[in-house]
Structures are given as C-alpha cells and as structure tokens.
Amino acid sequence: MGASFSSNLTDAARAVHMFKINGYSATRAMARTDSLPSRRLPVGGYHWELRYTASLIADSNHWVALKLVLLAAPTATTSAAVDGHVSHAFKRAGESSAWVLILRRSALEASGAIVDDAFTVECTITVITEIPDNVAAAAPAAPANVLPPFSGRGLSLSHHLGELLRRGTGADVTLVVSGKCFPAHRAILASRSPVFMASLFGDMKEKSSRSVEIRDIEPQVFGAMLGFIYTDSVPELDQQDGVVVAQHLLAAADMCGLDGLKIMCEEKLIAGATVETAATTLALAEQHGCPRLKARCVEVVAANLDAVMATEGYKHLMASSPLVMNDLLRAVRGRKS
C-alpha cells in the first residue's frame, strides 16, 4: 500500500462585524463617487476596511452598498468574501472588491430598520490565503505517475472563459451596443458586476429579455470591458493607444461597478500622464472618484501649466469640472513657495 499524505493548500479566517451607520439622513446627500470608511478590521492576518455609501445607482435606483478594501500588500494571493455576496482575489494594497448592494434606499427607509437616524449592518468577512511557496515546497511530492485531476492541460480558468465569450457557447443574453451585438452569459455578468446583477436578476425588464441595450459606451470600449469581465485582463491597455483606451474604460468601469478594472485603468493613466493627457484625465479622475489619479494629474498640470492650458483637454476640464481649479491653484502656489 502506497503512503498517503495530507497538507493544507490554503489558510482561512472568518470574522463577523456589526456596523452602525449614524446620521443616515446626512449620508443620503453623498455624491455617487463618495464613500465612508470603517475602522481597520484585522482578519486573516491582514488589515481591511469597509466602505459605505447610500448613493450607488443601479437599475435607476439609489442603493445602500458596501465594499471591502485591503489596506496592506498581501504576501500571497489572498481571496476574501463578504457574507457570501461578493468575493475578490486581492493582489495589492488599496485594491477593493465590487460593491455589495445591501438594499434600495427606498426599501430601507420603509423597513423600519432606521431608528434615531441610524441602522446596523451585520457583515461576515471570510479570508482565504494561499500557503506561501516555501511552505508548499516542503510538502511531500505526489508520485510521478499521478497527474493532478482536471488539469485542463495547463490552461487557466480565464483562458476557458475567454473562449466561452469568443465562441458564444451557451450565451443566454445579447448585449446591444450602438447596433453591435455581444452574446454573453447572465450568470457571469452578474457575478462580476453589481449593476449587471441588478439589471439581469432584479426588478428591471431586462430580467426576462433576451436582448439588452447598453447606452453611453462605444462598442470597442464595451468589448474590452466584456473581455475583462470574463478573463480579468485587458490586452488593449498594452497597445499603442492604451492611455486613450484606459480613459474610456475608466468611465465604463465606474458605471458598471467594476472596481478591479477601474484600478487597472487608473494605474495605466497614472503611468501615462503627460502634458497632452493630464487635463482630460484630471476631468475623468474628478468625475469618477479616483484620488490617486487626480493627485498625479494635478502634479503634472501644475508643473506644466502654460503648456497644458493650450490643450483641448484643458478647455474640457474647465467646462466639466471648474471646481478643480482650486486644487490646481493650491498646487501651483505650493511649487512657488
């Protein structure tokens, strides 16, 4: 009889937290891109933060929602789930999960749960961490003639999902963008985006429709976003016009609640901020709640103010986000002092 071995592939930790939202009526006035942080939450050897908003828009309604943010860089791939409603693989500090839609504001206010302008949410956080390579290497190796089950010939899940999207196998909904049709799968869309979850499985008419019209996104931008939903990657960001693609995708990601894609676009735009792109990107950062990107663009504009003022992007910035001028003036004054 051959020897048998047992080892852990992952570590897991679970914690339940009660969050009381005081001053609910004041939080209703928050902007769509604003959120309030919780205190630091130690779970699974890492520190986390929950963000709260009462102004997330989905299915044309305002929702109360939460999302989870990792505050410190993980030493290995770390997955976290919030009460089973959303899960995310965290790879870097500052990364956040998708928004978890708790309840429509109208339903919350009619439920009687708000007492003295406050209500409480119970949140369960489960963290699963891969065993580091040096620990895994110490485990006994499997016999050479035993192949791992379901190896998929070395191809990743993202590869298979990408093929599923490309071929349209089993597609049960068609997304129509400016006349172009994209066959897709409701369950995959809903699992990745709270906006798609609300529209495809909520009370909207799209729940029973085989065809859904998507507005305010260009077909090529939507195609790139759909590729991210299925594969967690955006090859278009590495092309020659990757900065322009990132600008369009940032707005689309924010609209659909795809925080992972939003972070990827933000990092691309931070690295690609130039005199020519800074003003346009600053307007996007202001509109879609990207503080790191905003700070980088303000820095570039302040250092090259005359050149940036000559660009078309600067005219758009002043027309769409005039209040950002205060940040620019402070930055320019800071460089002169």
Automatic annotation (TrEMBL):
Question: Where does this protein act, in terms of pathway?
Answer: Protein modification; protein ubiquitination
Family matches, as PANTHER family: BTB/POZ AND MATH DOMAIN-CONTAINING PROTEIN 1 (PTHR26379), OS06G0251200 PROTEIN (PTHR26379:SF191)
The scientific name of the source species is Oryza rufipogon (Brownbeard rice)
- What is the protein name for this chain? BTB domain-containing protein
Record family assignment: Belongs to the Tdpoz family.
Q: What lineage is this protein's organism placed in? A: Eukaryota, Viridiplantae, Streptophyta, Embryophyta, Tracheophyta
| Every BTB domain range | 171-238
Q: Where is the MATH domain?
A: 14-125
Give the matching InterPro entries: BACK_BPM_SPOP (IPR056423), BPM1-6 (IPR045005), BTB/POZ_dom (IPR000210), MATH/TRAF_dom (IPR002083), SKP1/BTB/POZ_sf (IPR011333)
